[in-house]
Amino acid sequence: MLTDKSSREFAKLLASKNPVPGGGGAAALTAALGTALNSMVANFSLGKKKFIDAKAKHEDLLRRGEILREKLIDLVDKDAELFEPLSKAYVMPSNTEEEKLNKEKEMQKCLKAACSAPMEILELAFDAIKMHEEILDISSKNIISDVGVGVQCLKAALNSAYLNVLININSISDEDYVRVNKERAERLLCDGNNTADEVFAKVVNIINGQEV
Fold it and tell me: Whole-prediction pTM value?
């Protein structure tokens, strides 16, 4: 399991010529770290006198954050597991017409499977970005920079997951599948980046004393 590796071991594997872990696993882990920062801010702010009325909201964010974080960590391994069959399909023989047909059939099946993990990462990163938007006004100013760091991690994960969706989906021949998933991915990309940029700008303004 990739997620059983130390940070140093994981980074070394990522730097190797092995096909996994790759960009998808890196995106999932980055999103998990961004989500964890949301939980850290919620934990730090929970029970503070200034935010006593937000106790239920902080607890809700912590509950949702734990679920999201665990899903994203699991996706580090899931992305690798789903990519492995695709890497094998790429090197299937294609000398005869029958081999070409079999290879294409297997490729299409594996491409859809490989696309599912980054699509899920994209969706979860978007959800976590929205959580940073929720916590912005109920977090201690002493830790507000971590909201900005968290949302930047999630923005990077969002954009990275989108690229992994795109590189798989552009080789899929099922036009309905491509249309539905491409529209979904582009909408999440656009809305997620816009929200992340707004949150980051507000964090900068709060740190600079331009917002209270």
Answer: 0.92
